[in-house]
């Protein structure tokens, strides 16, 4: 029993320099990756896991380790002047997270936020006229899913060249309610 304990202590002492070197590497990695900011454009599906298929565009802003995204999809035919009924849906999403660089080419971002999706119909027979002469049709929801959303994003920063201060990032996100991907640019502060 005492021999096992001594061997464990010996192995831990041997690993201490490796641990210190890894900490300095992570410090350099975090400092380099988190001294930059950028913008991204995402497109994906909200509510796919719950049986919805609402395609939603989103915009992401990231910098100094913080990641934010928001997306909005309004029902189609909302301003249509025809007399008809259309099956439509709408969705909203918002996430916040912290980007954790794993390597220079890989970042993982745990996300928390809110997602909302409704499926229903737009009623062209119940028109409201606006002050500027436009038309608004009512959206009547039939099915709705919303709530606290959580998940993860994987990002792949790609350095264009060593002279340029702009990098490209490819992002893929999976959460409880959303699946989406996108492309962005990172402006480095080297």
Question: In words, what does this structure look like?
Answer:
It contains 1 helix and 9 strands, in the order αβββββββββ. An 8-stranded antiparallel barrel has the order 1-2-3-4-6-7-8-9. The chain has one helix spanning 2-33; strands spanning 37-46, 54-63, 66-73, 85-98, 100-103, 106-129, 135-159, 166-175, 178-187. It is an alpha+beta fold and 190 residues long. Mean pLDDT is 80; it is low at 18-23. The protein starts with a helix and ends with a strand.
Give the tally of β-strands: 9
Per DSSP, what share of the residues sits in E-state strands of 2 or more residues? over 45%
Structural class: alpha+beta
Terminal residue distance? 53 Å
**Number of helices, counting only DSSP H or I runs of 4 residues or more:** 1
Secondary-structure blueprint of this entry?
Layout: H1 2-33, E1 37-46, E2 54-63, E3 66-73, E4 85-98, E5 100-103, E6 106-129, E7 135-159, E8 166-175, E9 178-187
Antiparallel strand pairs: 1-2, 1-9, 2-3, 3-4, 4-6, 5-6, 6-7, 7-8, 8-9
How would you sum up this structure in a few lines?
With 190 residues, this protein is α+β, with helices and mostly antiparallel strands. It has one helix at residues 2-33; strands at 37-46, 54-63, 66-73, 85-98, 100-103, 106-129, 135-159, 166-175, 178-187.
Describe this protein with a few key phrases.
eight-stranded antiparallel β-barrel; elongated; 190 residues
């Amino acid at each position: 029993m005492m021999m096992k304990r001594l061997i464990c202590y010996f192995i831990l002492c041997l690993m201490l320099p490796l641990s210190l070197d890894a900490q300095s590497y992570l410090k350099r990695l975090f400092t380099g990756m988190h001294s930059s900011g950028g913008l991204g454009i995402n497109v994906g599906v909200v509510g796919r896991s719950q049986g919805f298929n609402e395609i939603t565009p989103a915009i992401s802003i990231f910098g100094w380790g913080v990641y934010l995204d928001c997306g909005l999809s309004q029902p189609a035919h909302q301003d249509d002047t025809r007399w008809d009924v259309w099956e439509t849906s709408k969705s909203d999403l918002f996430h916040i997270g912290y980007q954790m660089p794993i390597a220079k080419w890989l970042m993982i971002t745990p996300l928390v936020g809110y997602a909302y999706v409704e499926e229903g119909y737009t009623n062209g027979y119940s028109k409201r006229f606006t002050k500027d002469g436009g038309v608004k049709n009512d959206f009547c929801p039939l099915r709705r899913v919303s709530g606290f959303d959580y998940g993860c994003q994987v990002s792949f920063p790609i350095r264009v060249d060593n002279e340029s201060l702009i990098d490209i990032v490819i992002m893929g996100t999976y959460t409880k309610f959303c699946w989406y991907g996108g492309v962005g640019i990172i402006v480095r502060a080297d």
